[in-house]
Amino acid sequence: MGLYWTRKILAGVRLKPAKRMKGIPPSSTLKVLGLAKELERQGKDIIHMEVGEPDFDTPAHIKRAAEEALARGMTKYTPSAGLPELREAITEHLTTKGVTTTTKNVIVTPGAKHAIFCAMVAALDPGDEVIIPSPCWTYEPIVLVVGAKPVFVEATQADEFKVRAEKVQEALTKKTKMILINYPNNPTGAVMQQGDLRPIVDLAIDHDLWVLSDEIYDCLVYEGKHVSVLSLPNMAERTIYVNGFSKAYAMTGWRLGYAVAPVELITEMNKVQQASTSCVAGFVQAAGVAALRGPQDCVREMRDEYRKRRDAIVNGLNSIEGFECTKPAGAFYAFPSIKKLGVSSLNLCEFLLREASVAAVQGSGFGPYGEGHVRFSYATSMENIEKAIDRTKEAVKKL
Ligand SMILES: Cc1ncc(COP(=O)(O)O)c(C=O)c1O
Q: Residue 115 C-alpha to ligand 1 middle, in angstroms?
């Protein structure tokens, strides 16, 4: 090989990923899934309780709407903010949650996650602080990618994992730009009632902050009533409401979500969408219209089944030595304390995977206040739940 090419190849070795990526953690759920899949390849019968994905199939009428859209030739780019018909269906659907808004306030995105990404890029400057109650879902990488700073506040089990306004107040600084809340919550299943939310949103109003409210589990509330932050007085001008189809209609793989925000912010979020994904596939949006405008019995039926599973898993977990599980009011996760076992949540999850072939997620993957807990998703069959409890009970005896 000539000197010229040797020099060229050596020069290439200097190429490194951006410095920004160094501090960005990979998804903890996907890490467990990777190990579980590896054990499965080795022939182990793994019970998957790590992934937050409904085990139900997408309802038939929704799939049919996509098929019909494809047959009509809906295979082209669509308007970047979403099809007018879907944006309209979203505004109509929101009236059932006490929210009045307009289609101009809505952007349709490939999944709720991308709505959160667009919102953060559009709303945050580098150095801005985002208050996030923890235990929390994986918002941190998105905040870090845009150069902002996550500031975690603890939501304790003693408070049923509802964040208290005093904690939020203590975390406020001149740099705070946003409070991010997620109720029903992943991973704790906590639900905030109107009285719980009021003091938090009052802080946002007093300090002129955005509230990003991720309400993707609003369809899964078993105790009390879901109250949308967007339905509260004076909140429309500072709320970035995020929702999607993944959980309510068992549509995780379709990648369909949306955000509602002030028009000025939607315009900026739309620029982010134009610069990244362009738009959501038209036939997927047609399925979204069918989901929102079609019969809602499927949502109720899935919720009723999740409720039964929740009761079974909570009872089961509480029957295991060292586990303490409060009854989650929403979503499809149980988040028991494992503090009495005296092991870290990561060690316990690895132990359960190898010893019991049960995959769950370590609490430490849910922000700084998740340690001491393990998340079990009960979006799986009753039979799997019972098997997982039996196996976990036996395995824990060997600790
Ligand atoms: C709290 C929360 N928000 C958002 C999402 C992302 O949903 P989507 O599939 O619509 O991107 C999830 C998915 O697990 C979630 O748990």
A: 10
- Cβ-based burial of 188 (10 A; exposed 0-12, middle 13-18, buried ≥19): buried
Q: Is 187 close to ligand 1, i.e. is its CB under 6 Å away? A: no
How many residues belong to the chain?
399
Atom of ligand 1 nearest to the CA of 257: 10
* Per-domain residue ranges of the chain: 24-53+298-396, 60-293
Sign of CA dihedral 137, 170, 118, 299: positive
Q: Tell me, yes or no, if the pTM score tops 0.90.
A: yes
Q: What is the model's pLDDT at position 13? A: 67
Please tell us whether the domain made up of 60-293 is placed in CATH 1.10.760.10: no
CATH, domain range 24-53+298-396: 3.90.1150.10
- What string of DSSP letters covers 38-101? HHHHTT---EE-S----SSPPPHHHHHHHHHHHHTT--S---TT--HHHHHHHHHHHHTTT---
Cα 29 from chain centroid?
Answer: 11
pLDDT score, position 224? 83
Q: What is the pLDDT of residue 8?
A: 66
- pLDDT by residue (tens digit) across 265-288? 999 999 999 999 999 999 999 999
Cα distance between residue 358 and residue 391, in whole Å: 8
The pLDDT, as a whole number, for residue 160 is: 95
Among the atoms of ligand 1, which is closest to the Cα of residue 112? Answer: 10
Low-confidence ranges of the chain (pLDDT < 70): 1-3, 5-13
